[in-house]
Amino acid sequence: MTAFARRARASAGRMHPELSLVSYTLLGHLEESGGCRATDLAAHYALDKSTVSRQVAALERAGLVERRQDPEDHRVQVLDLTEAGLSILAQVTERRRTAVRERLEDWPTEDLERFARYLVRYNGWSAADSEDD
Q1: pTM for this one?
Q2: Segment 16-64, tens digit of pLDDT
Q3: Which of 34, 35, 45, 105 is 20 to 30 A away from residue 26, measured at CA?
Q4: Main-chain dihedrals φ then ψ at residue 20, nearest 5 degrees
């Protein structure tokens, strides 16, 4: 798992020089969620608010993220992707998919199916599951 994480971090810079793995992850979450507060990002990824704040500030400076007023609570600012953010996220996502496809293209179908099942199982685990035991 450590080697996998190291490769992911290293490949992030090759995918797009402006985008760290953390930045890519935050942009992806903003796209999936349709925008959210910085505190929501911090809670979702179990990160310190100051860490998220620095990352968001860098994304804002790069023109990839913007703040807007929450229509339901005008005291709250919601982070959302800009057009540039959407474009870069799409480019990096396609490059990552291509890289994974190339890495797995020689795997036998049986191995790919087994690997996919294991990933689904791994990603489906939650802390709540272990509390039920």
Answers
A1: 0.74
A2: 666 787 888 899 999 999 999 999 999 998 999 999 999 999 999 999 9
A3: 105
A4: -75, 170
Closest to 41 in 3D by CA, of 92, 101, 94, 81 = 81
Exposed e or buried b per residue across 21-59, where buried means at least 16 C-beta atoms within 10 angstroms of its C-beta? ebbbbbbebbbeeebbbbebbbeeeeeeeeebeebbebb
Distance in angstroms (rounded) separating the CA atoms of residues 65 and 9:
21
Q: Which residue has the tokens 């990933």?
A: 119
Amino acid making up residue 7 = R
- Cα 6 to Cα 120: distance, rounded to the nearest angstrom: 21
Which single residue is written with the structure tokens 């990096």?
A: 92
Place of tokens 């971090």: 9
Which phi and psi angles does 36 have, rounded to 5°? Answer: -165, 175
What's the first-to-final CA gap in the chain, in angstroms?
24
CA-wise closest residue to 82 among 44, 30, 42, 43: 30
